[in-house]
Task: structure prediction
Amino acid sequence: MKLTGRTIVIFMLLNLVAGCAEQPEKLQPNIILIMTDDQGWGQTGYYNHPVLETPNLDSMSANGLRLDRFYAGAPVCSPTRASVLTGRANNRTGVAAHGYALRLQEITIAQALRAEGYATGHFGKWHLDALRGPGVPILADDPHGPAAFGFERWLTVTNYFDLDPLMSDQGEFKEFKGTSSEVIVKEALQFIRESSNAGNPFFAVIWDGSPHRPFLALQEDSAKFSDLDPKSSAHYGELVAFDRSVGMLRSSLRELNLSENTLIWFSSDNGGLNDVEPSSVGHLRGFKGSVWEGGLRVPAIIEWPGKIDPKISLYPASTMDIFPTIADILDLPSDVMIEPVDGESILPLFYEDIPTRENSIKFSFNKTGALIDNNLKLVATNWREQEFEMYDLKLDPSETQNISDLSPRLFEKMKDEFNEWNASVESSILGKDYPEGEVLKDHPEPEHWPADPRYEAYLEEWIDRSEYRNHIKNHRR
Result:
């Protein structure tokens, strides 16, 4: 059939209409980020822990994407939290170690989602405002608190918190009863209900205080671990309470008919501790504070009913991938994150099996560092002195045999890649990523207690009421 010019135009229009009809509706799921504090890679029931049962995490794992090679952005807490919010390696953001403040010049996922119409809430540990030491409530006018980074609703403390916590509710100090896990999940659910009733998608960050020391658990939660030493039994008791709260969250979402349109991303903030028994990291080498697998690899699950088919993946991913993945889901503009972005979207992993990662995952902490290129791992025991080792994680997941001499060319290539990346991080530390080309002068240095008389009243009035308060008092500097 000979096509006239008019016929060609009609076909073009029909194809255009058909193409538009085939375009999927823009996704805008509710998003919940859950993070535990010092939960090691091996501390879940689904990894067959010898004493700990986590039925709710196990259920979540069976219903979602279980990431068996998921890495915290750093081997300690504050840096990892900075990587979650920005998609960038912690040192780029000013958070070199625990208790460093996140730079106000950074763009966070909360700010990006709030601009898209999301209600944003933060519940639990913050630890991004330059305060070290035990957790204390955050003042309403804290210049580096959650409000400064896009959270319109927040209930938080600076650092760890346990039973019957005193927390800051938008700057108002309130005392709560119960475990840290159930307190923040209940408050997050109230925020979720209010947001849903208002017709708004929600972004809720739930950063737990468990199982960070001092280990304090309800007697009924630690009783099943009575054969362990008191410290370890309380530690595992806190994880029992956390798992129970995960169950409360998931069942409540189902009751509210929100489950199908809610993505939950769970992980820990760093590797496990070296002073609890049984081992918190399974067969892995190292613990919290190190760039060995035991210090960086953490449990992780992404659950999104109806969107993610249940599966277990060995695809290497990290907390730096969270922001890029969510930006990909929402089809946000590329400039929503500050460059360089160290994470990448793992959205394709939701729908298909991907055997290898195109770009390596890199870490720098103090003078140590690491580069993970699928099964190969470069470990910088001291990058300042150019001291490196290399391991094959598939054949040697416990990192017992340094193979740098077996593949010298590959070893040198990985060293060059790490050094080039680390040089870009050094540039970021100087503020070269920002429009100003430098770090704002109001960026605070870490301190142990805020220089504010309102905290003195808090200490005098509240700190002596229990073993936990005495712990805070004894650690005051």
The first helix runs from residue 5 to 22. Residues 85 and 333 are 17 Å apart (CA to CA). The mean pLDDT is 90. The chain is about 30% helix and 15% strand.
